Amino acid sequence: MTARSGFAASALRYYEAEGLITASRTTGGQRRYERHILRRLAFIRAAQNIGLSLEEIRSALSNLPEGRTPTPADWAKISRAWRGRLEEEIEALVRLRDGLEQCIGCGCLSMKRCRISNPDDQAARYGSGAVTLPELLREDRRHPHG
Ligand code: FES
Fold first, then answer.
1. How many whole angstroms separate alpha carbon 119 and alpha carbon 125?
2. Contact predicate 98/91, CB 8 Å
3. Per residue in 57-82, pLDDT tens?
4. What is the three-class DSSP state of 24?
5. Where are the domains of the chain?
6. Exposure b/e, 58-92, CB count within 10 A at least 16 = b
7. Residue 136 to residue 93: CA distance in whole angstroms
8. Best residue for ligand 1 mutational test, from 100, 101, 110 (most atoms within 8 Å of Cβ)
9. Per the database record, which ranges form the HTH merR-type domain (predicted)?
10. Distance between CA atoms of 14 and 9, rounded to whole angstroms?
11. Rounded to an integer, what distance in angstroms lies between the CA atom of residue 69 and that of residue 41?
């Protein structure tokens, strides 16, 4: 399963502990994953690539009836919703790039003038609750365990 899914065994154990996937046990106590879990893992990987946190992935999965693995129709609907999110990330990156243009050849790193190094301006630029980098660039959110 590890090779087929492209996930490390530790990641599979983590997702199981987090309740995102389930595994049955062989008589020898080894984990076994049903076929539909591969599809669930593909969903998790797609969500991570979009930049969703584990909490958001959990929420998306728990919104499905009876905790089912996303059907093609589910995925078609959810992926449409995520498109908007990706657009926001792209816009944030464009703003970041434009801010950086000002820094090229400058070197001041002034907290007053530099749009990139000024955390307050940055937070205002990305909206409430935002941090200095677009979510897409925060590796820790994308691949917590490989
Ligand atoms: S380093 Fe001077 S504006 Fe950013």
1. 10
2. no
3. 999 999 999 889 999 999 999 999 89
4. strand
5. 2-142
6. bebbeeeeeeebbeeebeeebeeebeeeeeebeeb
7. 9
8. 110
9. 1-63
10. 9
11. 9
Distance from residue 138's CA to the centre of ligand 1 (Å): 22
- The architecture CATH gives domain 2-142: Orthogonal Bundle (1.10)
Across 1-146, the runs of DSSP E, i.e. the strands, are 24-25, 31-32
Q: If you search the block for the tokens 């050849």, which residue do you land on?
A: 105
d(C-alpha 23, C-alpha 3), whole Å = 16
Ligand 1 atom at minimal distance to the Cα of residue 110: 2
If one compares 98 and 4, the residue with the highest pLDDT of the two is 98
Position of tokens 């389930």?
22
How high is the pLDDT of residue 118? 77
